Amino acid sequence: MEALGATFASVITGGGVIFLHGPLGAGKTTWVRGFLHARGYTGAVKSPTYTLVESYPLVDGLLHHFDLYRLGDPEELEYMGIRDYFSDDMLCLVEWPERGAGAIGKADIELTLSYCGSARELSVCAASAKGRKIIQQMQ
Ligand SMILES: Nc1ncnc2c1ncn2[C@@H]1O[C@H](COP(=O)(O)OP(=O)(O)OP(=O)(O)O)[C@@H](O)[C@H]1O
Ligand SMILES: [Mg+2]
Question: How far apart are CA 33 and CA 43, in angstroms?
Protein backbone atom coordinates (compact mmCIF):
# COMPACT_ATOMS: atom_id res chain seq x y z
CA MET A 1 0.00 0.00 0.00
CA GLU A 2 2.91 2.34 0.73
CA ALA A 3 4.43 1.48 -2.65
CA LEU A 4 1.11 2.30 -4.33
CA GLY A 5 1.00 5.66 -2.58
CA ALA A 6 4.56 6.31 -3.75
CA THR A 7 3.62 5.46 -7.35
CA PHE A 8 0.84 8.04 -7.34
CA ALA A 9 3.18 10.58 -5.71
CA SER A 10 5.56 10.21 -8.67
CA VAL A 11 2.94 11.10 -11.34
CA ILE A 12 0.87 13.80 -9.62
CA THR A 13 2.16 17.33 -10.10
CA GLY A 14 0.76 20.54 -8.63
CA GLY A 15 -2.58 20.64 -6.87
CA GLY A 16 -5.38 18.10 -6.91
CA VAL A 17 -7.89 16.17 -4.85
CA ILE A 18 -7.81 12.44 -4.14
CA PHE A 19 -10.61 10.69 -2.30
CA LEU A 20 -9.73 7.51 -0.40
CA HIS A 21 -12.77 5.30 0.14
CA GLY A 22 -12.82 2.04 2.04
CA PRO A 23 -13.74 0.49 5.40
CA LEU A 24 -11.90 1.00 8.70
CA GLY A 25 -8.40 -0.39 8.53
CA ALA A 26 -8.40 -0.86 4.75
CA GLY A 27 -5.05 0.94 4.39
CA LYS A 28 -5.95 4.54 3.49
CA THR A 29 -3.52 6.16 5.95
CA THR A 30 -0.84 3.65 4.91
CA TRP A 31 -1.30 4.78 1.28
CA VAL A 32 -0.93 8.44 2.36
CA ARG A 33 2.22 7.55 4.34
CA GLY A 34 3.78 6.05 1.20
CA PHE A 35 2.78 9.14 -0.78
CA LEU A 36 4.33 11.56 1.75
CA HIS A 37 7.56 9.59 2.15
CA ALA A 38 7.97 9.46 -1.62
CA ARG A 39 7.64 13.27 -1.65
CA GLY A 40 10.52 13.57 0.80
CA TYR A 41 8.66 13.92 4.10
CA THR A 42 10.68 11.99 6.66
CA GLY A 43 8.62 12.46 9.85
CA ALA A 44 5.83 10.34 11.27
CA VAL A 45 2.51 10.34 9.40
CA LYS A 46 -0.25 10.22 12.00
CA SER A 47 -3.89 9.62 11.26
CA PRO A 48 -5.76 12.94 11.57
CA THR A 49 -8.78 11.18 13.07
CA TYR A 50 -9.30 13.72 15.87
CA THR A 51 -7.79 16.81 14.27
CA LEU A 52 -9.67 16.20 10.95
CA VAL A 53 -6.68 17.52 9.01
CA GLU A 54 -2.90 17.36 9.14
CA SER A 55 -0.95 19.66 6.80
CA TYR A 56 2.53 19.03 5.38
CA PRO A 57 4.73 21.66 3.69
CA LEU A 58 6.39 19.86 0.77
CA VAL A 59 8.95 21.32 -1.64
CA ASP A 60 6.31 21.97 -4.31
CA GLY A 61 3.49 23.19 -2.07
CA LEU A 62 1.16 22.26 0.75
CA LEU A 63 -0.42 18.84 1.17
CA HIS A 64 -3.51 18.42 3.36
CA HIS A 65 -4.41 14.98 4.69
CA PHE A 66 -8.01 14.78 5.90
CA ASP A 67 -9.78 12.05 7.85
CA LEU A 68 -13.45 12.99 8.13
CA TYR A 69 -14.56 9.84 9.95
CA ARG A 70 -15.39 11.73 13.16
CA LEU A 71 -16.99 14.71 11.48
CA GLY A 72 -20.41 15.28 13.01
CA ASP A 73 -21.82 17.65 10.42
CA PRO A 74 -20.32 18.87 7.11
CA GLU A 75 -21.12 22.40 8.36
CA GLU A 76 -18.20 22.09 10.83
CA LEU A 77 -15.95 22.25 7.77
CA GLU A 78 -17.24 25.70 6.90
CA TYR A 79 -16.10 26.92 10.35
CA MET A 80 -12.57 25.66 9.75
CA GLY A 81 -12.39 27.53 6.43
CA ILE A 82 -12.50 24.44 4.26
CA ARG A 83 -12.51 26.41 0.98
CA ASP A 84 -8.97 27.66 1.64
CA TYR A 85 -7.75 24.07 1.95
CA PHE A 86 -9.30 23.09 -1.38
CA SER A 87 -7.85 25.94 -3.48
CA ASP A 88 -6.42 24.93 -6.90
CA ASP A 89 -2.74 24.83 -5.92
CA MET A 90 -3.26 22.54 -2.90
CA LEU A 91 -2.98 18.79 -2.86
CA CYS A 92 -5.73 17.23 -0.73
CA LEU A 93 -5.86 13.55 0.23
CA VAL A 94 -9.19 12.77 1.89
CA GLU A 95 -10.17 9.70 3.94
CA TRP A 96 -13.91 9.24 4.51
CA PRO A 97 -14.83 11.97 1.96
CA GLU A 98 -18.51 10.92 1.94
CA ARG A 99 -18.82 12.40 5.45
CA GLY A 100 -17.98 15.84 4.08
CA ALA A 101 -20.26 15.60 1.06
CA GLY A 102 -21.35 19.01 -0.19
CA ALA A 103 -18.70 20.90 1.79
CA ILE A 104 -15.43 19.66 0.25
CA GLY A 105 -14.05 20.06 -3.27
CA LYS A 106 -14.58 17.58 -6.10
CA ALA A 107 -12.16 14.69 -6.57
CA ASP A 108 -9.77 14.30 -9.49
CA ILE A 109 -9.19 10.67 -8.57
CA GLU A 110 -11.28 8.36 -6.40
CA LEU A 111 -9.53 5.35 -4.89
CA THR A 112 -11.47 2.53 -3.27
CA LEU A 113 -9.59 0.18 -0.96
CA SER A 114 -11.12 -3.10 0.10
CA TYR A 115 -10.20 -6.24 1.99
CA CYS A 116 -9.09 -9.24 -0.04
CA GLY A 117 -8.37 -11.91 2.60
CA SER A 118 -5.37 -10.63 4.56
CA ALA A 119 -4.32 -8.52 1.55
CA ARG A 120 -6.00 -5.50 -0.02
CA GLU A 121 -7.51 -4.53 -3.35
CA LEU A 122 -7.41 -1.03 -4.81
CA SER A 123 -9.67 0.31 -7.54
CA VAL A 124 -8.94 3.58 -9.28
CA CYS A 125 -11.44 5.95 -10.85
CA ALA A 126 -10.50 9.13 -12.73
CA ALA A 127 -13.10 11.75 -11.84
CA SER A 128 -11.86 14.78 -13.83
CA ALA A 129 -9.77 15.61 -16.91
CA LYS A 130 -6.75 16.11 -14.64
CA GLY A 131 -7.42 12.73 -13.00
CA ARG A 132 -7.63 11.02 -16.41
CA LYS A 133 -4.28 12.50 -17.42
CA ILE A 134 -2.65 11.18 -14.24
CA ILE A 135 -4.05 7.69 -14.72
CA GLN A 136 -2.96 7.63 -18.38
CA GLN A 137 0.55 8.57 -17.29
CA MET A 138 0.61 5.66 -14.84
CA GLN A 139 -0.42 3.19 -17.54
N1 LIG B 1 -1.85 -4.10 1.57
C2 LIG B 1 -1.94 -4.40 2.88
N3 LIG B 1 -1.86 -5.66 3.31
C4 LIG B 1 -1.96 -5.96 4.62
N5 LIG B 1 -2.12 -5.05 5.60
C6 LIG B 1 -2.20 -3.77 5.23
C7 LIG B 1 -2.13 -3.37 3.86
N8 LIG B 1 -2.27 -2.02 3.81
C9 LIG B 1 -2.38 -1.59 5.07
N10 LIG B 1 -2.36 -2.63 5.94
C11 LIG B 1 -2.48 -2.57 7.40
O12 LIG B 1 -3.82 -2.31 7.78
C13 LIG B 1 -3.84 -1.59 9.02
C14 LIG B 1 -4.76 -0.39 8.93
O15 LIG B 1 -4.20 0.52 7.99
P16 LIG B 1 -4.58 2.06 7.95
O17 LIG B 1 -4.48 2.69 9.26
O18 LIG B 1 -3.78 2.62 6.82
O19 LIG B 1 -6.15 1.97 7.54
P20 LIG B 1 -7.19 3.12 7.25
O21 LIG B 1 -7.93 2.70 6.01
O22 LIG B 1 -6.51 4.44 7.23
O23 LIG B 1 -8.19 3.03 8.49
P24 LIG B 1 -9.15 4.15 9.13
O25 LIG B 1 -10.42 4.16 8.30
O26 LIG B 1 -9.41 3.63 10.51
O27 LIG B 1 -8.44 5.46 9.09
C28 LIG B 1 -2.41 -1.23 9.34
O29 LIG B 1 -1.93 -2.12 10.32
C30 LIG B 1 -1.68 -1.44 8.02
O31 LIG B 1 -0.34 -1.78 8.21
MG1 LIG C 1 -6.84 6.18 8.26
Answer: 10
